[in-house]
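FAQ

Q: What does a record look like?
A: Structure on top, sequence underneath. For example:
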């Protein structure tokens, strides 16, 4: 199967990545939104936990970005040390957009092929290149 040139990324070594850039990708935003939809997200200070376990740092950064954007909200429960994180209406719309058009991934001989989904912030490849 012929693939467009933008679909193939070959790395001789792992690239140096800033987690703040990774947190802005749709995949991290989707992880934060879907965990909030399931009702498992809790925040204690700057730390974010999902079902009692600490989330990966890129998901923590994505969750804080989503809260700032108004896609997630903090719900303070009396007597609880942790704050529950829930989806807002705009967060539900963003989650629907992200799940409506999933990405396709195939791996052949240690080369990943991605089919990018459109996004208001540019396709995923453009987001990675920033």
């Amino acid at each position: 199967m012929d693939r467009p040139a933008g679909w193939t990324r070959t790395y001789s070594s792992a690239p140096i990545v800033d987690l703040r850039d990774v947190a802005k990708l749709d995949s991290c935003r989707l992880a934060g939104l879907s965990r909030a939809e399931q009702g498992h997200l809790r925040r204690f200070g700057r730390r974010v936990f999902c079902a009692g376990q600490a989330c990966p740092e890129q998901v923590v950064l994505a969750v804080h970005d989503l809260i700032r954007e108004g896609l997630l909200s903090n719900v303070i429960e009396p007597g609880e040390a942790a704050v529950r994180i829930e989806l807002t209406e705009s967060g539900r719309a963003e989650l629907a957009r992200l799940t409506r058009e999933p990405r396709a991934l195939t791996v052949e001989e240690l080369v990943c092929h991605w089919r990018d989904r459109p996004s208001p912030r540019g396709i995923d490849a453009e987001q990675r290149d920033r």
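Q: Is there anything notable about this one?
A: The beta strands are 8-9, 41-44, 47-50, 53-54, 72-75, 83-87, 104-108, 111-115.
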